[in-house]
Structure formats: C-alpha cells, structure tokens
Amino acid sequence: MKKAWLIALMALSDPMASQAAAPDTPKLIVVISVDQFSADLFAEYRQTYVAGLKRLANGVVFPSGYQSHAATETCPGHATILTGSHPGRAGIVANQWIDYAVTRGKSGSHTVYCAEDERQPGTTASTADYVVSPIHLRVPTMGDRMKQADLRSRVVSIAGKDRAAVMMGGHLTDSIWYFDPKKAASFVTLPDRDQTPPAVVRQVNARVAALMAKPVTSALPPACAAKSVPLKAGPGGNMIGVLANPEGRFRATPEFDRATADIAIGLLRSMQLGMGPAPDLLAIGLSANDYVGHHFGTAGAEMCAQQVALDHTVGRILAALDATGVPYAVVLTADHGGSDASERQAQRGFPDAGLLDHTFNLNQIGRELAAEFKLDIDGNSLLEGADQGDVLPAHGLAGQGDVYLSHTVSAALRPRLLAAAKAKMLAFPQVQAVFIADEVANATLSGLPVEDWTLMERAHASYDRARSGDLLVFLRPRSTPALQRAYTATHGSPWNYDRRVPMLFAYPGMIPHEQPMPVETVDILPTLAALIGLKVPREEIDGRCIDLDAGPGNTCPKLAYGALRN
Fold first, then answer.
1. How far is it, in rounded angstroms, from Cα 398 to Cα 473?
2. Residue 252 has what DSSP assignment?
3. Number of H helices, E strands in the chain
4. What is the pLDDT of residues 164-216, one digit of tens each?
5. Residue 537 burial by CB count (10 A; 0-12/13-18/19+): exposed, middle or buried?
6. 310-350, pLDDT tens digit by residue?
7. Is 508 strand, coil or helix?
8. How far is residue 268's CA from residue 335's CA, in Å, rounded to a whole number?
9. Given CA atoms 303, 305, 306, 312 in this order, what sign does their dihedral have?
10. pTM of the full predicted structure?
C-alpha cells in the first residue's frame, strides 16, 4: 500500500508515473482551507511557489472554483466546503445575523454569531462571551456522514478561527481545536469537551504566549522587495506595504499558520490518523491570510511574505502526511476571496474603488422613514444590521448584506416600509442593488454556469427565510464598507473577486491535469465522498461530484451522485 501511494505522489512531477501505480482507496481525507485565498492571489503567486503549493499546483487543479453565494464571509464559506450545501441550505447565511427572539443583556443586541450557542448561560452579556458550538449548522459535514457510516472513523478539525474549525468539522468531531483571541489567547477546544490539551497543543500554546509577549517582525523575503512600497490606507491612515507589524498582530503573521499546522501535524501523528479500520478526516483552517488581507491589503509586501510562508507551511503538512505512509486524498481551497486596499486599487487603475460614503447610515434612513410614516418607533432601531468585526457597527454605518426591519412593525405596514427603504438605499451611487426578502426567496434560477449567475441567484444561494435580512444590500464593485480603523480592506461582496477561489486536489493514482471550467466549493464533499465510497444522497446536497480523472476512468459513480461535472 505504501509503495503504491509513493508512486502516485511522484505523479506531481511525472504524470506518467501514476499510470504504473495500483491506486489505493484513501484512508485519510485532508482538507486545507486558506482564509481569503482568492483565485486571483493564487494566479499571481503560482509561479513563485517552491514547496507545498507548488506540489498541489501541479496536481489536479481547478483554478476557477466558486463560493457560489453572495455572502462571501468566513462562516458561510467554510460551511460549503465539507457539507456540499449552499449557505441557504446549511443555515449559515453570514458570520452573524439578527434574531429578535434573542436579547443580549443590557446592550439589547439581537445579534447571533454563526458558531455559538446563545442559549447557554453566560452568553447574554455580549457576543464577546459566546459559547462556541455547531448547533446553527443545519446539515451534516463529510465528517458527520463518515461517522454515521462507520463510528470507527475519526474526525479532527484544527483552525485559527473557531468558525472555520466548527463549520468544517461539524457536529461529531473527535478532536477540535481553534485559537481563542479573547479569553485565553491560545488554542482551545469546545466547552463540552475534555479541556486538557494534548502535548502538542500545550507546546504550541507556550510558543504562542512567548511570541505575543515579545512580538518579532519577520524579515522581508528577497522575492518581495519590489512590493515594498509604503502607502497610507484605510480610515485610520495605516502605513502598509512595508512589512511592518508594530502592534504585534500575531494573527496577521505566518507564525499563526505555523502554530495551526503544528497542532494538525502533532494530532496526525499521535492519533495515527488514517491507520485505523475506517477512513479518517483531518480539516485544517489556515487563517493568517485573512488577517494579512484585512490589515494590509492583498497586493503589498505583507501578502507577498505571507504567500512565501504559506507555501512552506503547506509543504510541511504534506511532508508529514507522506511520512505516515498512509494513502491520503487532499484538497486545498478557500472560504472566500478578497480585494486590496481601495487606495492601492485606485493607483492600479480602479478609480471607482473607495470606502462607502459615510452618509449611508441605517440610523439616518430609519429616522427618515419613521418620520415619513409617522411611526411611534425609535428610528435608530427601525433598521438594523448584524455587527461584524471588520466593519463599523451595522446599526449605524451599513455595508452590504442583510438589513433587518424591526419586528415591532406591523405585518400590514412592512411591505410599504421595505419598498421605501429600498428606494432610499438605491439613491446612494455606491449601491448596486437592494432586494426585498420575498424577491430573493421566490427568485427564478437561470441555470447558467456559476460564474454567470445573476446577483439575485447569488443572493438566493445565501438566503434562509428564518435568518436572512428583510433587505439584502449590495454595493458596486470595489466599493468597500465602512471599516474599523485597524483594517484597510475586506471581502463579503457578491462579485467574482470575492467568490472565485482555487480548488487543488491530490489523491492516489491521480493523473495531474488542469481544468479551467467553473466548479463550486459545494462540489468538494461529493467528490471526496466518491473517492472513499461514501454514499451521499443527491437530494440532500447542492454540489455534484467532479470527475477528477484525466484519463478514460471516472471518479464519480453516476447512480450515487447524479449529473457529473466534467
């Protein structure tokens, strides 16, 4: 078995080698998500990779994978990767949403975080005190399905963000660890699990504590020298483009991914993943890319240095997998893309790039509506958006996505108020479209390829009647919501620079090739399931199995998965 798998690995450099191998069924499924790793970023740096990303870039490559939906945020994106479901089916419509049945302490906030259990004691004071949980994920992940098929399968999920670990791991993880920046400033597990960290987690946490106590700025790789161009950007006038990290933002450094990878590698070895009687799953969420993109943008020296480090981190993960001798299948993809700082975009020929006009204010629009309709309602709370970490509080300065009309408005008045609010929002030149919820729920789908979906179709893929907003607002391309002062760029738009991500596969017996056709991240689950013979009812998912075979074979069983992508 080991010999056949090593021969298959040689196909990354010699396509003919795979034809001599007797393919083994993978005993370990490995899924790597790189947060905010757009297809554009992959294309820009592809020729510079020398380690793990080079190996995968010479495997089975889909350069145009799509997070199909409009809500290109971390939680919805990670929820698609191993459920095979669009966010609307999965119930993960955004990182946060409004639930008027929930009131959080003195603040009166109705915001619910995607990866929390707001019913637990001690979580009502603020969302900063949430209890991490997968309860809001309405569909099973691949790991859940593997354990339902055979309880001997092990499911391990490690990530820099709790929402990444939870959404990829699912409900039945055997081991799950994620970084908690607020309480412990270390990697922790779910509150209902054994809180005693294994040795590798203790070792990594000790190293992280030392790094956070005495931050060190890495040297600029020589290959990134040309990108070291100072620029003031963002609402705080931050200096970017010089690989400076004066505030010691640990999560925006390659050390963050190194810590996550070290835990994943340690658990791979200690748990002997892939060596049991049933196939195992290891999900790894590398999150530093996202923090680098938010703090410094995607086109400067900081992102260049991050790509150099990411390449080597992925290489270490693959080397550790090779050393086990276990036949494994690996896929690397992303939860969403991202765009650069608007100031640098303007320099690069996008004159319309810029921050959202500060006068686009939900409080102001709400006050105007309350006066026009003579409502005995506080106009400041008439319209509300869920607070998000990268933009200013959405009840005041809105960006894009879900806007909720107060539940105190009568059913008879709601249609007129929503129509009036829509008209006011569309009057702002940076607003591309505003949809009323019923329009989205009842949308007619075109059947076009995912790259050509209409805005309405993209919104529909993210829509859940119980959790989505009463209005869905979309800004024009390269218009940036009102950011917090620490950030210079973000994502979350319905445009292809935020939707398009790479999908890179390697598995026993593969014939390396590249397929430029558009595919979706929801296709990953049925594709990986086919490799290990896991049955997934077609009607339970939105994705379809991708035929990964460049030769006469077929990796997708038609009867089990319906129509194929090829």
1. 9
2. G
3. 19, 20
4. 999 999 999 999 999 998 877 899 999 989 889 999 999 999 999 998 887 77
5. exposed
6. 999 999 999 999 999 999 999 999 999 999 999 999 988 88
7. coil
8. 23
9. positive
10. 0.93
Rounded CA-CA distance 158/297 in Å is: 25
Q: Tokens in use for 402?
A: 């879900």
Q: For tokens 């020398």, what's the residue?
A: 50
Pairing of strands 175-180, 155-159: parallel
CA 255/CA 205 separation, integer angstroms: 12
| Residue 516 CB contacts under 8 Å (≥ 6 apart), including other chains | 63, 64
Helix (H, G, I), strand (E, B) or coil at 465: coil
Pairing of strands 401-405, 383-384: antiparallel
Contact 287, 260 (CB under 8 A): yes
Q: 508: which residues sit within 8 A by CB, 6+ positions away?
A: 4, 5, 8, 21, 23, 24, 25, 26, 327, 328, 329
Edge-first strand order for the sheet with 431-436 is: 383-384, 401-405, 471-475, 431-436
Whether 75 and 167 have beta carbons less than 8 Å apart is answered as yes
Is 260 known to be catalytic?
Answer: no
In the numeric block, the tokens 């939680």 are attached to 75
Closest C-alpha among 105, 108, 146, 151 to residue 129: 105
With vertex at residue 442, the alpha carbon angle to CA 437 and CA 448, rounded to the nearest 5 degrees, is 115
Distance CA 122, CA 312 (A): 41
The answer to whether residues 224 and 301 touch, using CB atoms and an 8 Å cutoff, is yes
Residue 125 φ then ψ, to 5°: -70, -45
Of 500, 487, 231, 476, the residue nearest 348 (C-alpha): 231
Q: List the catalytic residue out of 74, 141, 313, 555.
A: 74
